[in-house]
Amino acid sequence: MSRSALDAYANGAAWWDTAISDIKKNEIIIRGYPIEELIGTLSYGQMLYLLLCGEVPSVKKARLLESVLVAGADHGPRAPSIAAARMAATCGISFNSCVATGINVLGDIHGGAAEKAMQLFYQTKLLADADPSRDLAQVVAEQLDQMEKQGEKLPGLGHQLHDADPRISRLYALARPLVEEGEISGIYLQMAEQFRHQLELRKKRKMTMNVDGAAAAIQCELGIPAEAAKGIFALSRGMGIVAHAYEELQNRVLIKGPCPNREDLVRYSGPALRHLET
Amino acid sequence: MSRSALDAYANGAAWWDTAISDIKKNEIIIRGYPIEELIGTLSYGQMLYLLLCGEVPSVKKARLLESVLVAGADHGPRAPSIAAARMAATCGISFNSCVATGINVLGDIHGGAAEKAMQLFYQTKLLADADPSRDLAQVVAEQLDQMEKQGEKLPGLGHQLHDADPRISRLYALARPLVEEGEISGIYLQMAEQFRHQLELRKKRKMTMNVDGAAAAIQCELGIPAEAAKGIFALSRGMGIVAHAYEELQNRVLIKGPCPNREDLVRYSGPALRHLET
Amino acid sequence: MSRSALDAYANGAAWWDTAISDIKKNEIIIRGYPIEELIGTLSYGQMLYLLLCGEVPSVKKARLLESVLVAGADHGPRAPSIAAARMAATCGISFNSCVATGINVLGDIHGGAAEKAMQLFYQTKLLADADPSRDLAQVVAEQLDQMEKQGEKLPGLGHQLHDADPRISRLYALARPLVEEGEISGIYLQMAEQFRHQLELRKKRKMTMNVDGAAAAIQCELGIPAEAAKGIFALSRGMGIVAHAYEELQNRVLIKGPCPNREDLVRYSGPALRHLET
Amino acid sequence: MSRSALDAYANGAAWWDTAISDIKKNEIIIRGYPIEELIGTLSYGQMLYLLLCGEVPSVKKARLLESVLVAGADHGPRAPSIAAARMAATCGISFNSCVATGINVLGDIHGGAAEKAMQLFYQTKLLADADPSRDLAQVVAEQLDQMEKQGEKLPGLGHQLHDADPRISRLYALARPLVEEGEISGIYLQMAEQFRHQLELRKKRKMTMNVDGAAAAIQCELGIPAEAAKGIFALSRGMGIVAHAYEELQNRVLIKGPCPNREDLVRYSGPALRHLET
């Protein structure tokens, strides 16, 4: 089956087909709702969820999503995303392009663990649902066995800097009452903890969730697709990127590189001086 | 005075100096606040304002800011920002890079009028404050005179598609009660309306605010710096960009260009067939 | 083994370590050579190869590389890379950011087949070298068997538009004499043709190389690493992106979206008009 | 006069109108030439010039352009463009997106002086041509007077690091014989030197051309439009960006920020620890 856009159009598909918005003269419809009914009524978290997932989430769910967005908003200029945006701000490009420069690096490795963890969690849920005779702990153990065999790392655990990240316990504390109230199921929070706990037993050393892992569990609770995780993080870290690029812009310093001009920070390890043969 | 980063460092400045955040082991401080006290307490709008402007705004101010963010969130795939992100999603790059592609084009012209309008509004306020003997209408008239002389266009007015944009009246209706309650001064809303009204009289035809103009007035009311406007719009339209890129990703269509392969949409107007001289 | 940059630095590694260039006051050394000996001596293709691979290639090899760069330089505004850059040029961002917008979409799918084909070719070569008792045709057949089993598509074959791409025969005609002169081995050109030919026999229909496939074979002949392919294509298509963005910039048209405002080109398929419950 | 793309289309313009290339089934025409006649015939410099300016330049002119491209190709990881691309390479995004990240920062300040210098040179030429009674020295003096009055800095002079940049004398040495042969006029080289020399006399200290200034003079000699300068530099520095991002990719290090985690490199200067009022 062809996945060519040209073939789809030849077969009658519209070139640009969207269920997100309908834009006409003096009319902006978002997922069926007139925009003027959403402005001032929906929070940022509700609007993002409506655009991405198609329905308006409850206020409590949206607040939980915003908690995740706030948690990831900044990690200072040592983070490549923040540094890249700040360096861009000293190079004379449009401010939004500085922001894009920072967001462009939030890939598989820098914040991308949430997507991998969500994929694992959703898949584990499918396996657990498929065979109700096994409990969650068993399914998690099987998943860990398989990951071990394939040399895969469990996503969402460990951090270069933190081993008791203050964001994690806070996010958990915010999610727990929503489980009790039935707003979210709690299954993915439980699952994330199972993965962490069982790996700790296997490795015989303390394992800690990182903010990607906690965000992943909560985003699964909210029914957000795994493939959307990098986009959500872009809007979360995006806040910090905007603020840092703006701060650097105010410095009015020109062409700031990554580090000062010092011998211990940059090393040339290539061939010694030589000349072209003539 | 040198603006070189190297010179500043030679004179004792830290290479990376920030008043936004302090990141240490198991400690993330944002503008003085421990992050765990912000997560679940601040809304997206409050967190963005804190990061950018240094203080936590009131809930009402933050809601007004979120109204602006919601208003600009999407304008469908005919907008270059949305189309660029959707095309990127068919080309096999990281999802965040699709988002960056869309945000990269939100420049001076595509959403950038808000910054120009804010600069005008802040400057007009300074002029009005400097000479209390003139009323706002006079200062606005002088500004319009000068812009006319220099052939400058008033930013924040008119739209390719809308002439009664439903977002504008809604944003005004949300802002008005906050003026009455003293949350915001109302001076910039009044000023924007003065500019629109006086230009209408000069041009002798209906002039309508666009969403950039209304956003500019509200952002001035909130004390947001003009130079930050493109960053805020990046996080507003960013929501639509994330949703549209995700939707296109789900189509699993490959290499979608801007329009179907039809003769009426692409025209070659270069030299007729020729050959290199040999 | 940790792959953390912080750990490496803690163990004595330089933070920025490069074998490419050494920059000191009034001295720019590239791979050991003073830059002033390279300027005017090396062609673009030679300089790119020196920077990327560490040594200056022969003039003939560099010309072959430039042939590949010229071949991929443009495919008109229906290509997402070109369209994205042109749309960016109507949005008011820095010209280099328009170029970056175009290059940002040259990912796995849009031009990325060359990398996959190069990986396949290099791997096939290793397999052939490991067991001299089998001839190339046998090794290729085994690779095709395995790809078939795993449902993988052979990269570098087929095109949305062309079935006798004029670039392919030209590139082959340029490479052939270099095989005869011993400049390149010819093994990868032969291998690419074997893959194409055997697949044709299996599928019982005409299969044609595309420009990614031909570029891949030539780049393998030149000893370029597979993972560098997307970077090379960025500098090839980059020429077209620069020219098209510049042309669009000269139009001075504002906010050009992907297609005209016509009902047959954009379709909304979301929910019918609805209102928030209150 | 409207500059709206929608209005132009309503008046009969093609949506995508280009004089650069015509792409049909099995036919790729570049500025009138079939692509297969260009591949292997044109160098990179010739192809870039043809795409951008519409005609094939002489081999000597194209070589001079390539000299400029080679001269700007790399300035090591202390340059923001190189560092941004290397950091991106540790973050898990597509290789071309690493390249785009680097190119995205080559704005008005980082490499952008060439454009400003070219604008000045072209404008000075117009003034000189308009009144043949004044010699070049007089026109340059008037331009310097005016720039002084307006507080403008002469673009293309001075460098953070170099004061006798080895690239400059080499580029001049390559250009000189082409003046003698009549390939280029030499007027812009002379003009650049006049500007440098007169400023030196005014400032009473040594002033040196930088690589942007020398590139500007040569690009004017070649008839390249000023507004295209950033695109050309993108393809010049693009070589270094590709090589450095590839080198960093090979390190397989994860999330490398701008500098090591040391107290003397990052400083927090914001408010002391505080808590939200409740």
UniProtKB/TrEMBL annotation, chains A, B, C, D:
Which Gene Ontology molecular-function terms are recorded?
citrate synthase activity
Q: Which Pfam families match?
A: Citrate_synt
- This one is known as citrate synthase (unknown stereospecificity)
Single GO biological process annotation from the record = carbohydrate metabolic process
- UniProt-listed InterPro entries: Citrate_synth-like_lrg_a-sub, Citrate_synth-like_sm_a-sub, Citrate_synthase, Citrate_synthase_sf
- Check the record and name the NCBIfam families matching this protein: PRK06224.1-1
Family of this protein: Belongs to the citrate synthase family.
Q: Give the organism, scientific name.
A: Brevibacillus fulvus
The pathway entry for this protein reads as: Carbohydrate metabolism; tricarboxylic acid cycle
Per the record, GO CC terms?
cytosol
